[in-house]
Amino acid sequence: MRDAPALIEQYLPVAKLSAESYKERKAVSGQTLTGLGKWWGRKPLILVRATLLGLLLPQTDDAKADADIFLKLLTMDDAGLERRRSKPIKADKVLEVLLTLPPEQSRRYVMTGPDGQPMVRALDKADKDALQMLVFKHLPYAEKLTYADRPEHLSGPDKAAWKAINAHLGTQAQSLPELVEELGLRRFGHRPRVGDAFAGGGSIPFEAARIGADAYASDLNPVAGLLTWAALNLVGGGPEVAERVQKAQREVFEAVDKQVTAWGIEHNEQGWRADAYLYCVEVRDPESSYMVPLAPSWVIADKGVCAELVADPANKRYDIRIIENATAAQMKRAKDNGTVKDARLTPPNGGPSTPIRVLREQGSGLRQWENDDVVPRPDDVFQERLYCIRWVETYSEGGKIKTRRHYRASTEADQRREARVLELLRERFADWQEKGFIPSSRIESGYNTDQPMRERGWSHWQHLFTPRQLLVHGLFQYFGESEKVLSIGNQLLVYRLANWNSRLSQWLSSQGGGIGGGKATYYNNALNTFFNFSVRPMQALYSTQIVFNSDNILKAQVELKDARSNDTICDFWITDPPYADAVNYDEVSEFFLAWYEKHIPRLFPEWYGDSKRALAVKGNDAGFRQSMVEVYANLTRHMPDNGAQVVMFTHQDAAVWADLALILWAAGLRVTAAWTISTETDSALKAGNYVQGTVLLVLRKRISTEAVFEDELLHEIEQEVVRQLDTMKALDDSSEPNFGDADYQLAAYAAALRVLTANPIEGIDPEREISRPRVKGEVSLIQKLIEQAVAIAVNYLIPRGIERDLWLTLTPHERYYLKGLEVEAHAEYRSGVYMELARGIGASDYAELFGNSKANTVRLATPSELGRKGLEKGRGPMGGTLLRHTLFAVGKTSESGDPQEGKNWLRHELGSSYWADRARVMGLLTYLESMGRIEGAAHWQEDAHSASLLRGVLENDRV
Fold first, then answer.
1. Locate the DUF1156 domain: which residues (predicted)?
2. Quick check: 660 pLDDT over 50?
């Protein structure tokens, strides 16, 4: 068993794991680690747990039992899901499910109501509980998760499950940490050590430590290091640490609030307290010479609050009037009369518009701010203006304390308070910069960091914050100095304050249910500058407090280190490396690092406070590929021969896979398995045509040194693809499928990589391939073989309901359409899946086959939607083919309601081949007819019925 293949090399419940990962991601701030601070691309904890257990669990000669035990350990089996059930199912859903059950199961719960419609009977508590469980059992897996806690919310399997687990594995564990240690001792002679050399937000080391492994985490970036340390030592420090950190945080808030109140900078003369400050940028219009306030819309709150610009000719500017309880007409004018449209100044007087680009160049041009600039100078191109404050009035009514909001234009008294804020900041500015209470570092040029410099002239990180923000955030630093654990908690609090309260916090009228609110700085992955932005006073900062649940974890270590020089030996390396510049972590994290770069050496004497941008592994050129080889060769050297690695990445391009194959091959690794898990929600990073899944590549040290020849590879790849697909199909469950269409396609990639990385290939030097420059349009041998593997898979996976003899006679585009319908039937609407399918089948110019090509809602056109488009031979992707004529005949039947019309078309167009092709046409019609039975395919109902009618007419047609 010591050398037995790991279970993850044979099986992973990808569909269920995808559903669990999606549920975890959709929890947003309810995720275990997100409360610590913003990081990009944290992997779901359930994915890490499944990966590590999959590496530790051995394969046995009973694959079905292996899979069942794996699900029990993850509490993803039926019994585990029932234990996780935590929310009641609503009555309408209960009735919907009951009506699908056999009468013997539902009759005790259903009766006929007064209106003649079925309804659920009145039940006592015991029967209600039984009914809830009955309905829960009959829900699809993903829908069950709506009513269930996440696996991490349970301590693990129950006693009954542990009995089955131990019997199967020959273990004696009663908890996940006990099992992890026992399996580690069996394989390595010690508790397994799990490493992550690109720790990022800390998901991998945190979950590894939580379920009982010794965790090692390293990252080049100190922001990532701090977040990972906090995950392991604050969240993982247990209830006592969590309470101490949160108590200290409350005390800091109280101290800052007391000081702000004493200064009188957030209260007006009526005693109201500020709830939001709204600013806009002003610029001189070269056409009218007016100072024009800039905003894409003057709607402040969707619930009836807007601004109106009123010309002040004497001062060549505009007054900004705030209107509460605005009429629909006033709201529409405010929405339509924005002064920035399509990156152009659109003046309120209706004069000529001017590109913002031109405005930056007027006068002496955009000035680069100096260190102590915290507001624009009078002669700067862009000025800033406080134009609205949302106040909260507290009053008593009927013996109860109540509050109400007021939106008011800025007054002279408000401007005096603004001046007081600036005065208070200037008194402390130099001292606070020296102590690191506010940023002082210059912004280093880069892809993301050039944006604020180019668009506003902000040259230092403190320029991204207003005086009020710098003063208040600095107070949190001033009052937050304490012992290490508490001080780190405070640094993370300031981290969150910075993200939610900067000059880059856009004001949106729809936030807060229509009362308006500010977005986070990093609502996407750019340093976007806005013409209208918000500042949060203390009232609105309380929501930024760090809230986290506590866990007691085992041994863990965090270092700041370049992955290329890592010298720690780990049994398993699980890494999520940067790839193809999806996020420039080094650049965007400097926004946060600027707030605590001087504190890190104090808190961690062995660490540094520099982002080490020059050393970051990034890009997609030869230098990047060579860096990746160095990283993974180093990790391979620091791994035992019976260890393994898992590399996580999110690309579906054959060229990227080919590069990765070369990288891993050159690093001395071989691929043993690959799985794809849907881990991404429809975020700014992954929406649209981007891949919404994470590929897990399982890797072992390559031992074979015997070279293979190119002509041997394709045959081996074909055999391996077929073996992989047969294995997956045997493990799949038609009622609750483990694998989707994308999984089968990507399995072909994995199979190809297994063959390509198993041995050296005669005539190919991976080091040379990696370092040489790419020629545009060039297809390497490795890429060609990978693409052929996908083609093998697509042709092997004939859609269910299509006979093989028929399939083999079809053109690539006919196959694409039919296979695409199967993809659609599986509720797969991501364009990347259809693009990958086209590559595998060899179909091009297929756009006109779509009924909807919008990202994440992609589907093929129905026969009626296609109409005559691309019907004739030589026109369109399927012109003149048997399938295209069949589709037109179905559409004709739908249009007329008479299947004879469709039959006559086929007889006329197919001519003398009609009788020979009739059986093939009937096979196609049978398949099209099945689309009418697909849930959610309402657009197919009429054409599916027409296909059925037409098939009947053809079946009865006689010479």
1. 11-72
2. yes
Give the Cα separation of 903 and 953 in Å (integer): 7
Residue 513, exposed/middle/buried by CB under 10 A (0-12, 13-18, 19+)?
exposed
- Residue carrying the six token digits 């590399």: 647
Evaluate whether 249 touches 493 at the Cβ level (below 8 Å): yes
HEC per residue, 765-831 = CHHHHHHCCCCCCCCCHHHHHHHHHHHHHHHHCCCCCCCHHHHHCCCHHHHHHHHHHHHHHCCCCCH
CB 836 within 8 A of CB 745: yes
pLDDT of 210 higher than 70 = yes
Distance CA 57, CA 192 (A): 12
Beta bridge partners of 112: 118
Place of tokens 């129950």: 158
Segment (H or E) for 397 = strand 383-397
* Nearest in space to 796 (alpha carbons), one of 747, 833, 738, 869: 747
Is 845 strand, coil or helix? coil
- How deeply is 360 buried, as exposed, middle or buried, from its count of CB atoms within 10 A (0-12, 13-18, 19+)? middle
394-441 pLDDT, tens per residue? 999 988 999 999 999 999 999 999 999 999 999 999 999 999 999 999
pTM: 0.84
Residue 794 makes CB contacts below 8 A (sequence gap 6+) with 745, 748, 815, 819, 837, 840, 841
Concatenated DSSP letters of 173-203: -SSHHHHHHHHHHHHHSSS-EEEESS-TTSH
Closest C-alpha to 863, from 821, 813, 833: 821
What is 80-102 written as a DSSP string?
HHHHHB-SPPPHHHHHHHHTTS-
Would you state the torsion angle of the CA atoms of residues 725, 731, 734, 739, taken in this order, to the nearest 10 degrees? -60
Tally Cβ neighbours within 10 Å of residue 685. 16
Within 10 angstroms of residue 264's Cβ, the number of other Cβ atoms is: 10
Structure-token pair, residue 62 = 């009973």
Residue 277: name the closest of 536, 495, 662, 593 by CA: 536
Q: Which pair of tokens denotes residue 699?
A: 């890797």
8 A C-beta contact, residue 957 and residue 910:
no
* DSSP single-letter state for residue 515: T
Between CA 899 and CA 948 the distance in angstroms is 9
The pLDDT, as a whole number, for residue 739 is 67
Q: For residue 958, report the phi and psi dihedrals to the nearest 5 degrees.
A: -130, 155
401 phi and psi angles, rounded to 5 deg: -85, 125
Helix axis angle, 45-56 relative to 203-210, nearest 10°? 60
Task: Quote the pLDDT of residue 687.
Answer: 34
Handedness of CA 770, 771, 774, 779 (dihedral sign): negative
Domain range summary for the chain, segments of one domain joined by +: 7-89+139-235, 256-544, 619-791, 798-955
Lowest-pLDDT range of 5-19, 473-487, 622-636, 762-776 = 762-776
Q: What is the CA radius of gyration of the chain?
A: 32
Among 867, 846, 841, CA closest to 858? 846
Q: Is 56 exposed, middle or buried (0-12, 13-18, 19+ CB in 10 A)?
A: buried
Q: How many residues does the chain have?
A: 959
Total Cβ atoms within 10 A of residue 653: 15
- Pairing label, strands 517-518, 305-312: unpaired
Q: How confident is the model at residue 683 (pLDDT cuts 50, 70, 90)?
A: very low
Mean pLDDT across the chain, nearest whole number? Answer: 89
pLDDT band at 938 (very low <50, low <70, confident <90, very high): confident
Contact 135, 90 (CB under 8 A): no
As a whole number of angstroms, the distance between CA 12 and CA 50 comes to 8
